């Protein structure tokens, strides 16, 4: 099985990013390659209406089966 990538995040309650605002959670994916996940991360992170309290990250799903 190949690795899968997810873009996760949303709007947080403050700039400490300790608690996400309910209802703003976003999960995009899975993406089969890192480049596509990075393109989606970039789109979400740098869009025009992005607030200072929004944050997104790329999560890599662990491989199953050893390879």
TrEMBL record:
Pfam families: DUF4170. This is Uncharacterized protein. It comes from Sphingomonas ginkgonis.
């Amino acid at each position: 099985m190949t690795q899968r990538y997810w873009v996760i995040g949303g709007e947080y309650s403050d700039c400490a990013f300790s608690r996400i605002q309910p209802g703003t959670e976003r999960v995009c994916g899975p993406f089969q390659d890192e480049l596509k996940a990075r393109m989606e991360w970039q789109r979400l992170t740098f869009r025009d209406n992005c607030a200072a309290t929004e944050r997104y990250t790329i999560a890599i799903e662990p491989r199953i089966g050893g390879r």
